[in-house]
């Protein structure tokens, strides 16, 4: 088989729904213009994120099989890198040669790559090659990865934006009643909000814990919005709530800071969604930076690279709980003994109601024909051939960024 053509589509962050407009602490919260902690600056994240959320790559072959992959997140630079560099390397090649093609793509992009957009572009192409391999074999990709290690994939409910405490409590109860045994909330404030912000962050955790009782695992996401000093103080304060993990307390380049926070924290520390390749994750593991690794297959270098990262993590006894729960992630989790669960984005009832009243329907994964669907806190292992990343063409057109 031969690769004949690669096409790219830039997809708007609007396909993620309005969730980018809700309050939470982010890596940019220290700048007032980009801070939406109080919910009165809903465009804050869009101002620095740019318009593109995912870049979809379609790889055509002379056998009539098309593979789909996506890079996240994303800027138009991903499309440029795919078009100017990667497609020149892989068009005309056999899509089955994934290891060699990955190595070529990686080496050719080193001068401007190594982390960020170039590796996200490689991720998208690599995922499309795995999709082709599954489709050619007529098998779900997890079978090519060594087969099933679990009958269904436990999922944690990831949302709980601190819009207000009443909604937060009812949303947490909604997830517990739907069968989720784990959920993740968003913190709201960072060092810029001082002790008052710390008190509010604690109130968010307290609200969710009170709403669901002590049998549900609760994680929290700081989205790189804290400093080492702030994180140590904040996490100390959260000790009574028995948290499952706290995610991305500091910026990803501060690996020593991660290790310092982890050493001091009364709960496990996670991160890795903004780290890239085996070499980046090797640093996190060898320097004891975290307890749970969260690479994203659409960023870290695709499935070919995620398998290497998972092997290293398992040798360090660090579980991998990938960032975002797209179908390619589900194939990986199904096949890995080191990946216990998937992230899953349910729709809060209060959001659904508001959407029916005011907005046309948009939500995460809108661009896919068969997005993951959790039942009773778990997602069925995807069974179709390939990675199950078929596109919803109408949605793709709707959210296309020119
Ligand atoms: Mg996160």
Strand content: 5-15%
Number of helical stretches of at least 4 residues: 14
Separation of the first and last Cα atoms: 32 Å
Multimeric state: single chain
Secondary-structure-derived class: alpha/beta
Which descriptor suits the 3D outline? globular
Task: Determine Rg (CA atoms, Å).
Answer: 20 Å
CATH superfamily of the largest domain: Enolase-like C-terminal domain
Give the topology, please.
Elements lengths: L2 E10 L31 H6 L2 E10 L4 E7 L3 H15 L7 H12 L7 H21 L3 H4 L7 E7 L6 H13 L4 E5 L7 H19 L4 E5 L6 H10 L7 E3 L7 H10 L4 E3 L5 H10 L5 E2 L8 H14 L11 H9 L6 E3 L4 H10 L19 E3 L12 H7 L3
Parallel strand pairs: 4-5, 4-10, 5-6, 6-7, 7-8, 8-9
Antiparallel strand pairs: 1-2, 2-3, 4-11
Helix pairs in contact: 2-3, 2-4, 3-4, 4-11, 6-7, 8-9, 10-11
Key features of this structure:
3-stranded antiparallel β-sheet; 402 residues; 14 helices; 8-stranded mixed β-sheet; 2 domains; magnesium ion binding; EC 4.2.1.39; binds magnesium ion; alpha/beta; 11 strands; Enolase-like, domain 1; metal-binding; single chain; Enolase_C-like; 14% strand; TIM Barrel; Mandel_Rmase/mucon_lact_enz_CS; 40% helix
Question: How does this structure look, described?
Answer:
The protein has 402 residues and is an alpha/beta fold. The protein has two domains: 3-138 and 393-398, Enolase-like, N-terminal domain (Enolase-like, domain 1, 2-Layer Sandwich), CATH 3.30.390; 144-380, TIM Barrel (Alpha-Beta Barrel), CATH 3.20.20. The protein has 14 helices and eleven strands. The strands form two sheets. Strands 4, 5, 6, 7, 8, 9, 10 and 11 form an eight-stranded mixed beta sheet that branches. A three-stranded antiparallel beta sheet has the order 1-2-3. Helix 10 links the parallel strand 8 and strand 9. The longest helix has 21 residues, at 117-137. The model has no long low-confidence stretch (mean pLDDT 95). Bound molecules: magnesium ion (MG). Magnesium ion binds next to loops.
């Amino acid at each position: 088989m031969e690769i004949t053509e690669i096409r790219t589509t830039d997809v708007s962050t609007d396909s993620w729904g309005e969730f980018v407009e809700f309050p939470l602490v982010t890596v940019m919260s220290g700048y007032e213009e980009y801070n939406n902690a109080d919910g009165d600056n809903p465009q804050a994240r869009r101002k620095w994120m740019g318009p593109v959320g995912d870049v979809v790559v379609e790889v055509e072959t002379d056998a009539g099989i098309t593979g789909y992959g996506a890079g996240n997140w994303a800027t138009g630079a991903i499309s440029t890198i795919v078009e100017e560099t990667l497609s020149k390397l892989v068009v005309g090649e056999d899509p089955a040669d994934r290891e060699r093609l990955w190595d070529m793509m990686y080496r050719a992009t080193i001068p401007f790559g190594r982390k960020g957009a170039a590796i996200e572009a490689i991720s998208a192409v690599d995922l499309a090659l795995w999709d082709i391999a599954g489709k050619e074999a007529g098998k779900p990709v997890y079978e090519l990865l060594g087969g099933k290690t679990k009958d269904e994939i436990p999922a944690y409910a990831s949302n709980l934006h601190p819009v207000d405490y009443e909604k937060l409590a009812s949303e947490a109860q909604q997830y517990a009643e739907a069968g989720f045994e784990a959920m993740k909330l968003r913190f709201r404030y960072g060092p810029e909000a001082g002790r008052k912000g710390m008190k509010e962050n604690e109130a968010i955790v307290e609200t969710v814990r009170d709403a669901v009782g002590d049998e549900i695992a609760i994680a929290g996401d700081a989205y790189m919005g804290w400093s080492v000093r702030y994180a140590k103080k904040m996490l100390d304060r959260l000790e009574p709530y028995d948290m499952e993990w706290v995610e991305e307390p500091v910026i990803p380049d501060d690996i020593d800071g991660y290790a310092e926070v982890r050493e001091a924290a009364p709960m496990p520390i996670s991160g890795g969604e903004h780290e890239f390749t085996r070499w980046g994750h090797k640093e996190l593991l060898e320097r004891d930076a975290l307890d749970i690794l969260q690479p994203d297959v659409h960023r870290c270098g695709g499935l070919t690279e995620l398998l290497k990262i998972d092997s290293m993590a398992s040798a360090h006894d660090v579980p991998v709980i990938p960032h975002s729960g797209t179908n390619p992630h589900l194939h990986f989790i199904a096949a890995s003994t080191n990946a216990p669960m998937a992230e899953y984005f349910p729709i809060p009832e209060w959001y659904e109601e508001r959407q029916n009243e005011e907005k046309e329907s948009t939500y995460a994964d809108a661009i896919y024909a068969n997005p993951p669907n959790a039942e009773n806190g778990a997602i069925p292992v995807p069974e179709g051939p390939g990675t199950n990343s078929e596109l919803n063409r109408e949605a793709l057109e709707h959210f296309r960024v020119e």
